[in-house]
Sequence to fold (438 residues):
Amino acid sequence: MQNLSNKPRILVLASPNQSRLAHFRKLYQLRDKFDFVGVCIGKGRGWESRFVQHWIELDDAVTDRSIKSLQDKVGGPIDGIINISEAYVPLHAALCERYEVLGPGPEVVAVGRNKYRMRQFCQALGLPVPRFQLLTTELVESSRDFHFPVVIKPAIGCSSTLVERIESYSELQAVYGDLRREAEKFYQKDLLTRQTVQEFGELPFVVEELMGGEVLYPSQFPYKVGEISVESVYDGMDSYVLAIHDSPIATNGPYFEKIMNSTPTRMPQQLITLASEFIGRIHQALGAGAYVLHTEMRTFRDGLMIVEFGARIGGSSLYRSVLHSTGNDFIEILISLALGREVRLMDTPPIPTITHYLCAPAIGRVRSFRGETALQSFPHYLDHQLYDEIGDYVTRPPLNTRACGYVVAGGASFDVLEREIIEMLQCFSIEIEVADFR
Fold:
């Protein structure tokens, strides 16, 4: 596979996921400027090769042998690497080192995909995090003195998968073994599983105190736990906040489901300033590299509490939300970082934008989607995507990693947009043939 053009050659790491379709569409738009080589571990979805000049599928295991095989298939040098899948952060760093191109440093890999190391990292920087400790079979007993209820989550988990609220120490004792085995099954192909098990003796969890959160603005939605997510990049000198999303959640348990994002944030200015300060300290400690930082914080009238961060770009919904609201394009930004070019951001005022996820009501197979056309009939509709087909098996918390899709509205006041989204959700439904989830 030779690069016969003068265009910069860029590896694109992308796990097989329908929520990355918008990212691939952008790659296709840029095909006249860059030579893209897409890389996936395992089998892709089948459509990826339509959007990039070259498509490579690797074996499940990422070893020196498989990386050498990738280099043989690529043939010749590459100019940069971008990663649009959170799980591929370790592969991203390894390939950047092998090809001697700009990429995330070892600290990003060490803490950006490990929720336990991430909390230690924040604690060392003096940033507020909930009280926490490592949770393994041998350490369950030491969790007795936590003030229950608590939250437990896999140390290397993505998103809110297998994150649960536990009401008492006796419940923790009863369910931990099953949850650990579920995590080992769920993450058996994760790039960090083997390394993590070697370090801790098993695939560990994190246990932490349950934090609330206040929604600090008027809202018609029934989601009462205040949270924000911050998308940011760092060029080695300055950190840039691309967007702050208000991301309230419906409840404090037993599960924690991402259900909506709206931007620009409606938080008080002093909290916006504080969030930017926290982000700057994290970026400076992690160092420069071609990655986007996604940081989640609970909001309170007198401050913020960091829940977690990760080196991840987010799926189509977050990608499109930032683009619709600010005009900033994650893909273009990542390419600039990977090639050592100046990051250019839009400086126009952000447009109010709300993204709401379309969630299945139960676990099972999709029987129908009703009202998809109706979603597009509202004045401030901007965008939507369904990730699943009729007959697909879909899950619910704690086993899901994504919703079944999303819808975006924008360009009006938040009061108007909230009313429209609520009406959209009343028009749209997903019918499920229900099945047991475990």
